Amino acid sequence: MRRISKLTRVAVGVASLGLVATACGGTSGDSGDSDSKDRGVAIAYDVGGKGDQSFNDAAYAGLTKAKDEFGYTTADIEPTEGETDADKEQRLVSLAKQGYNPVIGVGFAYGPALKAAAAKYPDTTFGIVDSVVEGKNVASLVFAEEQASYLAGVAAAKATKSDVVGFVGGVDIPLIHKFEAGYKQGVEDTKPGVRVLSQYLTQTAEEGGFSSPDKGKAAAEGQIEKKADVVYQAAGLSGQGVIEAAAKAKVWAIGVDSDQYKQAALAPYKNYILTSALKDVGGAVYALSKSVQDDKPLNGTQTFDLKVNGVGLSEANPEYAKVPGLKAAVDKAKEGINDGSIKVKTE
């Protein structure tokens, strides 16, 4: 199986998964002891699992796209509470042994486990979302979250009437700092003087920062009490609580990763989801799957940024276009990011 080492960007359509594939061959697993050689992509979910209406569900959309187009067997595995790196490694090894290829760990927490599993199965392609792991058979699928968050900040600054907006991060880690940094910069560049209230739900993922809607709801309610009338969340499953609180108070929420305005589970609150900062995890999962299907598996760091439509901002809510100056300001910001005149901070 031939590997590509120089490709660093894959053009994908944000949230649309509108890629066309024509390959129809089988995939290969480990050359030594895999149980099958005709199975396709397998994903191992991050904290919160399937049904978070956000990060994990976006990965599942990519898996479904690949399954439908290539007609092969797929697998998606839930995390377990309090699991160790050894548990994660065993899950990935089991998938590779069964012949799935590629095997993708959804979330930075899979880093150590994926590195170990990839070393054991050198003929299987592994992928990891939101982290960089070295390995000849590893594709690191990373995103310019700060760019999408900058656009969310522009939107928040245009939509606020109280000149107070909020940010709720799931866990206090560098990855979520990127969301906060971009958002704050977008707000400041668009409307100086707007106050940004920031709160992280927990210090570690084990404490439930990405999986506790009640924590998200309480944080958003606190910010709304302090006059925030737009609240942006980067909190996984916990973000559902943020959106619920915003809808109850009749203020704007900004979703994350998936277009949360379109999520069925959030339909009762959709009128208050102004927009979502999009991160095309599904497109990345599909792109890696297609590369293996085409016998040209990606490896190395694959960066999905605004220029290749790997991140973006949703316009699904009709109210988005009705906020004075919002769309024009976001479009201008996109141009600035793409031409380099706007440098978005990551911390």
UniProtKB/TrEMBL annotation:
Q: Topology versus the membrane, per the UniProt entry?
A: Lipid-anchor
Annotated compartments = Cell membrane
Q: Which UniProt keywords apply?
A: Cell membrane, Lipoprotein, Membrane, Signal
Query: In the UniProt record, which is one GO cellular component term?
Result: plasma membrane
- Look up the signal peptide feature and give its range: 1-25
This protein's record includes keyword Signal? yes
Highest taxon of the source?
Bacteria
In this chain the ABC transporter substrate-binding protein PnrA-like domain maps to 45-318
- CDD domains hit by this protein: PBP1_PrnA-like
Q: Which family does it belong to?
A: Belongs to the BMP lipoprotein family.
| Name of the protein | BMP family ABC transporter substrate-binding protein
